[in-house]
Amino acid sequence: MTASPAVRYRVKHVTEVRYDALVKLARFNLRLKPAPWSGQTLLDYRLDVSPAPKTIIEESGPFVVNVSRLSLDKPTAQLVVTSEFTVDVDRPPPDPGTAAPTVAEVRRDALKARGLSAAEPAPYLFASPIAAMAPEIGDWASSHLATDNDIVSAALALMKAVHSEFTYDSTATSVKTPPLEAFRQRHGVCQDFTHVMIIALRQFGVPAGYVSGYLRTIPPQGRPSLVGADATHAWVNVWCGTELGWIGFDPTNAMLAGNDHIFTAMGRDFADVSPVDGVFIGGRGQRMKVAVEVTPLTVFAPNEAP
Amino acid sequence: MAGALSGMITERADDDALAGYAVPDPAADLFAAAPAPVTAAWRRMAGGLTELDPEGLAPVHERLLREALDLGMTFRLPGESDERPWPVSPMPLLIGTEEWAGLTAGLIQRATLLEQVIADIYGPQQLVADGHLPAAVVAGSPHFARKMRGVSPPKGRYLQVLAIDLARGPGGKWRVLADRVRLPSGIGYALENRLAVSRTTGSLLSEINVRRLAGFFAELRAGIAASCSRDTPRIALLTPGPYNQSYPEQAHLARYLGFPLVEGRDLAVSRGRLYVRTIAGLKRVDGIWRWIGTDMLDPLAFNAGSQIGVPDIFDAWSSGELAVANWPGAGVVEARAFSAFMPRLAEVFLGDKLLLPNLATWWCGQERELGIVRDRLDELVVSPAFGVEVAGLEGGRTRPGASLDAAERAALAEGMARRPIDYVGQEVVHLSTTPALIGDRFEPRPFTLRAFVARGADGEWVVMPGGFARLSARGDLRTSLIGEGDFSADVCVVDEVPVEQLSLLGSGQVPPVRRTGGMLASQAADNLFWFSRYNERAEITVRIIRSLLGSSIEVDGGSGRGEGSRRLLVDLLVRFGAIPPQAAGLRLTKLCAGAYRERELSGGVAALVSAARAIGRNLRDRVSADFWRVASRPKPRLDGESAQAILTATDAAIDRFSALSGLSAENMGRSPAWRFYDLGRRIERATMICRITRQMAAEGCTPDDLGLLLDLFDSQITYRSRYLVGPVRSLVLDLLVLDPANPRGLAFQLDRIDENLADLPHLGEGDLPEPPIRQFNATLARLRSLEADGIDDRQLQDIETRLLALSDMISQRYFLQYERADPTMQDALLA
């Protein structure tokens, strides 16, 4: 794996919600502002909400995630949320000089870590609201996750297995499809692939997190177009031992998360990092339209930010 | 009589009842191992039970079960929608002063320790940093709420009340089976068991100096109040709703403690404070005793899909304005894996050993422990470490290692190799027995005991002097509250000398005199109103059926009446939706039986009664036990379709409705709750009078028509005492519409509506009467301007329309405009 050049991106994410009737009161959790993470630097961020909410409270946590809590109390039939930021991504691939531990060592080290913070392995070891344990997925993945395999090779093999055995199909699943169902169909989108891979890893005691973020839009010359253009994206963070820490694996595109990947948040599964959730009172039906633009501004050599 | 009162009863020879009670090992039985004074109490209790009924013990048991049913004690097994009668045994477990003192010390030590562990997990997390507690044990607990870290409770109290399950081993040593921190389920049943037993056994319990429970509940209440910031706090019991498994228990507790029973939709958060929507507007809530899991409490802070929580309630407790029992996230310590670390944590925090050890537990997330469990599998039981289903233990069940066949062993070994952190091994529990009443004799049965601990007014721990025992002939007693075939028994602490007793209402300072009983949630007002409307509608429909078949004082009865009059009544049944139109031509008995049994059409008697019962489920905490007992019965059965059978059933139904009216009139305080109950009935009855009078007393009606009308409104006798002539239209109309002294007449209903409206809280600004009152004044004026001779269809229809509008206005003004918070759909644009 050769280092790709570092990139400065401009990201614009517009969410438009329309209600069939006037909404008297609405509360939202927006998880759109990138949380601090290695390999990237947030240069500016702007959140614009129309109509203007009564309050916006900015918080972070309880995982690696920023949350903007909106509260609207004026009757409205539509809401437009525009999130825009500039970010430098300079994420070199894992140092080939560092020997990767075995699956068994990772499992043991994960239990030795004495912390519960959002970047520690312990919170990502267990079943979570969406990523329920599924021995069936464990059985499928078992050949890749033998105890003596080194963790990076094991995760790469698992990632490639998802990529080759699953068909990308944006009509097969919805945001609510349980991962096990997507697994049985062998069809789905990035969210499904990510959940399946997370469950497979956890099934063997390897900590795995769900990353939400964005993917570079324009394919570089000579490379095929990447699935995930103009949309939010998801991939897997695998905890590869104390030395290597978290490494991103993108099963949708069978690649490591590198300088094409813009990190927004990490949680146990989609529910922890979903870009928008909340409740409203009064409106009946609702429709949501999302538009994402990811524009690379400048490309520069690693470690030489302009 | 004087002799009995002077305490000579203890001299009676009554030690025969337990004479035949034999156990192989006396140390392994609660009675056989008890010291002499306690054994005497056992003998007196058993003897006293046999003396209660000359027929023996079986009728005593039956009477107790009936008592339990009358108290509204029911439960549901998971996955069942019907409530089952509560299986309670008349023979309590008796524990002496000294043994109880030992248990009390151990329970208080454990509560103290759990409090400190929880405070550390949601505070400095020093236990994890120092390696006393693996991070994975905390993170793996399904009840660990990450978001609660750093959010501290008022006065630093994470726990207010908890239950601890205990087992007495064969050698007499007590052990902790489980800590129940999320929900102290069984606490209400302990109270009800005591109530049922003491009602059935007369003075027996006081003869053997049983400590009373009331003081504990007074402390529990004062303890929650002490965590609230205002001096006279409003504390509510937050329930998931009537379909929850332990709703009957929650309703009983709420009523006993005087806490309003509320659901999430009754509550709202504004500027960091919690409010309940009441008929008098929003009222602040200072504390909640929640019976909803942390994850479901707030759709914005936790599970976004929760429909039973309160949006933003997180803000109310994190701003320090709301006490919550127990503090959200406290349940983290319930995971079985914690048991493995409790002895060590006791050393760390208390510098002491556990007075009540828990079951020896090995968490397989540690290599040495995993080895022990593998090697000693046949002597141990294996359980999921965190209560969720794991590979090799189907349904998340605990399995004795020795019971596994080869295939199951292989599956378990594979699961434990992949995720050892999900498993614990525990020593096998052996249980002591206790004398249980089986049929008409006492036999030893294994038992577990659920004890309850709460903070009192001063924040110190108080142990309920008693508890809840679960007995079983077989099976695992460690799982839920009660299972198929199990039964429960009261637990009594007996002293050699009587101890000073407290009652819930009599302890502590005397509060200022109040005339109204707390607040009335809008939702509860709504339920009361519709409950009585449905019942009234059912009653009038039953009366129509009865009139059709003839039970009046007319010698010829219904069948002797004119065919035309009967057709008018049948037509009413069709219009009320009690029978389908095509049924109108059926034979009279078939048609009446159909109307009585109709469930599909909304106007059928069965449908109306079941609608009333469904609403009635929500009223459990609002009405007396007697009222509840009558209200919750299904409608009287109709056997066959003969006229006699139908009349028997309808008469029984009328008795039921009359019992409800009587109980509400004589037993309910004239609070706003009663006002709404009465309003519902009066508005429904008034509307029905208008409708039925229009049908039966139209221009050109026959004396038969009028006779039936008088029947329907129970006014035959009054009419005959006033007039010697047969039914005359103007005279009948005067009696049914205008005479304010006829309790079945329209004027009477309108006067009651007037009184009820005047007594409801005033919300509007200034002195202007509330809109429903203004609207109603016009209706009243309309009625009072009528003369019997001049009453026509148009006028009655006008009043009827106005009454329906009044019902709508009451609903808009006082009831919850049901504001369901819908989840926002989630971003679907994913690559």
Q: Could you characterize what this model shows?
A:
The complex is a heterodimer of chains A (306) and B (831). Chain A is an alpha+beta fold and 306 residues long. Helix content of chain A is 20%, strand content 38%. In chain A, the strands form four sheets. A five-stranded antiparallel sheet of chain A has the order 12-11-10-9-13. A four-stranded antiparallel sheet of chain A has the order 3-6-1-15, with no helix packed on it. In chain A, strands 4-5-2-14 form a four-stranded antiparallel sheet, with no helix packed on it. Chain A starts with 5 loop residues before the first strand and ends in a 6-residue tail after the last strand. The model of chain A has no long low-confidence stretch (mean pLDDT 90). With 831 residues, chain B is α+β, with helices and mostly antiparallel strands. Chain B has 28 helices and 22 strands. In chain B, the strands form five sheets. In chain B, strands 3, 4, 5, 17, 18, 19, 20 and 21 form an eight-stranded mixed sheet that branches. In chain B, helix 10 links the parallel strand 6 and strand 7. Chain B starts with a helix and ends in an 8-residue tail after the last strand. The N terminus of chain B is likely disordered. The chains are: A alpha+beta (306), B alpha+beta (831). Chains A and B meet through strand 2, helix 1, helix 5, strand 10 and strand 14 of A and helix 6 and strand 22 of B.
